[in-house]
Amino acid sequence: MNPQNRAVDPITFEILSHRLYQITKEMGITLERTGGTVNTTQQHDYMAAIYRSDGDILSAGETFGQHVACAGFAVKRIIERFGKDEIFPDDIFLLNDPYLAAIHQSDIYAISPIHYKDRLVGWSATFVHVNDIGAMSPGGDSPEAKDVFQEGLRIPGIKLVERGILRRDVFDMITNMTRQPGMVGLDLKCEIAANNVAKSRMQEMYERYGLELVDAVSEEMICYSESILRRRIAEIPDGCWSQIGTIEADGIWKINMTLRKEGDHLVFDLTGTDGQSNKGINLPYHATLGMCFAALLTSLAYDIPKNHGVLRPMEVIAPEGTLVNVRPPGPVSMSTTSCGFLVVYVASSVLMQMLATSEKWRKEIVAPSASHRNGKHSGLNQYGRYCVFNLAHGALDGSGARSTRDGTDSGGSSMSCPNVEWFEQNFPILYLFRRHARDAAGAGKFRGGLGAETAHTIHDAPEEKIQGVAYGVAGLKNSGHGIFGGYPGAPSVVVLLEQTKVGDLIRQNKSPVNMAELGGQARLLPYCDFELKKDDILYMRVANGGGFGDPLEREPELVRVDVIKGLVSAEAAHDVYGVVIDGKSHELDLDATRLLRTDLREKELKEE
């Protein structure tokens, strides 16, 4: 305990700190139950957190770490813009300007002051990824945008609700600058509801326990997280570790990161990163800091309460005018799933290198991933209504292997993916398959998690076409990265097959699940807009986790089980894992396996 807060006994501290966390959880539940878009209700692409009166992070639910940090910047920008004389009880502010606090315009932060007896005592904040923001491409991700002015509405901080009254003129202005005003309006209203829940619950706490006690617990929560994290950092030997990540976007773009660890302090230094791009893959500085914060939360701070204490031991250096600290008016609309995910990857990679130097922390190593490609569609649906929808396939990534177990199959993301039937019921598409991609996970003593591969075509589309946008971390070297002898996972790709035989196969009552039978002209999609027309197929393979350790050290029985499940082919079992399995009975031949593994190791030594 902080000596200054000895009045906070341990039991009271535990009860009130958990209550604050539960408030953020209830905020998230409110977003899901009152929202209406796939992003919020199905994919869980949202953030809910509470902040201290100065904007420091107090508590966050199970949500994205980068947005928790960026929403703190948003609170501070609102305080600077309006001042205490213009911040009233029951106000709610909106901000989505990526040059102030947001990551890109599609993420609208709703920020609400919390007052107790007319005194400003804290803030709540939420974000949802709105269905549309009026950018040149439906849905907001705009591959052809050359500057931020082509990427949709920018809000530097405005009151949507003033003293409890919705400003209808502001609400209508924002929603009617989008392609789906009804859905965007629902997005904003679910944020209002979640912030109202936070305000009500916090005021109940202040009323029951008193302002001084709640404030003391809040301070102690932050000090607790900081002290735990600093102690863990100090346990690890000082050192310096580096990693480079690349993205393909009209050329190769490089992000360079060096982690320096001195005592109980970490410095994430991105000096050497390429200059900013003319594609919307650039990150604002606060977003880069948020991505490093997110990487730290899932490594050394995985079990520490998410608050400002985790930020205090870390520093981020990101040179201005680069991919990780863009100057205006550089485009940013695809930043979250491109450079954003890549910063998380390089930050996670250097953190894993650091952990590998510590006997105590080595068991926490996870093979890092540069994440996935994805797609959005828009157009008239089968009911004649215009819609924009995100396929949410990124939630089906495979996670990296750990030092003690395999990665998670189609569960490497904190988000969720709706089922196939829900998509087909609401949108004009037909899935041909959605399955684990065989042999795609990185091999190893512990293999990476398998990601999904999907294929779909249009169905019952009134215009016989829909518009698409391909985004995500582009590059054939990007996916799960193997460590300590483990193999990388198969890269994440988006492929458009034009003029296929899918219609003929369906009319013949044949299941079009074999890609070799579909024919057509295949085109690997970079960051781009495209059209999906009749008899076209969009094939997507999301990220697969990297392996940990030498595949020849994997338990043969685990390989056999994967073969039976169809996750690993008999050929890969033999050639990669050195395991001999009978093709019919699936029984192991352990003697033959030992001989084969000896031969494979001898070949490896000769090649070296």
- Strand arrangement in the largest pleated sheet: 2-1-5-4-3-6-7
Query: Whole-number average pLDDT?
Result: 95
What's the structural domain tally? 3
| Shape, principal axes of CA atoms | globular
Number of strands: 20
Number of DSSP helical runs: 14
Low-confidence stretches: none
Radius of gyration, taken over Cα atoms and rounded to an integer in Å:
25 Å
* Helix and strand composition category: alpha+beta
Largest sheet: 7 strands, antiparallel
- The fraction of residues in strands falls at 15-25%
N-to-C span: 55 Å
Share of helix, binned:
25-40%
Any chance you could write out the topology, listing elements then pairs?
Blueprint: H1 10-34, H2 38-42, E1 46-52, E2 57-60, H3 65-82, E3 92-95, E4 107-116, E5 119-129, E6 158-162, E7 165-166, H4 168-175, H5 181-209, H6 211-234, E8 239-248, E9 252-262, E10 265-269, H7 285-297, E11 314-317, H8 339-355, E12 373-380, E13 386-390, H9 420-426, E14 429-436, E15 452-458, E16 465-472, E17 493-498, H10 502-507, H11 515-518, E18 521-524, E19 528-533, E20 537-541, H12 556-565, H13 570-575, H14 590-607
Parallel strand pairs: 10-11
Antiparallel strand pairs: 1-2, 1-5, 3-4, 3-6, 4-5, 6-7, 8-9, 9-10, 12-13, 12-16, 14-15, 15-20, 16-19, 17-18, 17-20
